[in-house]
Design goal:
By secondary structure, the protein is α/β, with parallel strands linked by helices. The chain has helices at about 20-25, 35-50, 60-65, 70-75, 95-100, 115-125, 145-155, 165-170, 180-190, 195-205, and strands spanning about 15-20, 55-60, 80-85, 105-110, 130-140, 160. The protein has ten helices and six strands.
Length: about 210
């Protein structure tokens, strides 16, 4: 396992996207739903730009939850979600096998609902020796209180809390890394609020001195 004190690097990480489905999003009250969708799409695009393996899993697609939300599926069109019966990804043999097949011991996790499918999976993965980073602003809970308590439960079990923008900036770290510069900057400009507005302004308005 990598040193837990070290920064995230793309070659060590895999992304696990759990149950980003409309039927579950209807119940989310811990965060504005559009903000949740934007954050989750930004995180998925980040995984694509940095070449992280992406595992998507859904549950109860036919009877309640629906498919992976289109805004997220559009960002990862080649990723086919693995549908499960168990709330816990780790208790579904097919989904767990895909996670294990990539051999990455650092998992970045987002999903719905924080109190169930996310926390159960995270706690189980931690017990198996994985280093888990919960992208908390790309997770949604039934209430602010229950969401916060679930985050605290996962943190006490050894998970590390982060945000989608920290993940992006941590993976990029140096804006002279040209291979991911355009992709990372585009994500920030699209989803990064005031920070993204500032980057767009700098690109469009601040010109280099003429020679």
């Amino acid at each position: 396992m990598s040193d837990i004190a070290s920064l995230l690097t793309p070659s060590e990480c895999a992304m696990l996207v759990i149950d980003h489905q409309a039927g579950l999003a209807f119940a989310v009250e811990s965060i504005d739903r559009q903000t949740l969708l934007n954050n989750s799409a930004a995180l998925a695009r980040t995984a694509v730009v940095f070449g992280l393996p992406i595992i998507a899993s859904t549950s109860a697609t036919k009877v309640y939850s629906g498919p992976l939300m289109p805004a997220i599926q559009k960002v990862i069109p080649d990723v086919h979600a693995i549908d499960r019966k168990s709330m816990n990804v780790w208790e579904d043999e097919a989904a767990r096998a895909v996670v294990e097949s990539f051999g990455r011991k650092r998992l970045l996790v987002s999903g719905l609902l924080t109190e169930a499918c996310v926390s159960f999976t995270v706690i189980s993965a931690l017990a198996e020796g994985y280093e888990v980073y919960v992208v908390a602003d790309a997770c949604g809970g039934l209430t602010p209180t229950s969401h916060d308590l679930a985050l605290r439960r996962m943190e006490s079990a050894g998970a590390r809390m982060t945000s989608w923008i920290q993940v992006l900036l941590e993976l990029q770290r140096d804006w002279t890394r040209h291979e991911t510069y355009d992709g990372a900057r585009s994500i920030v400009e699209t989803y990064g609020g005031g920070y993204g507005i500032g980057l767009s302004y700098a690109r469009d308005m601040i010109k280099p001195p003429s020679k």
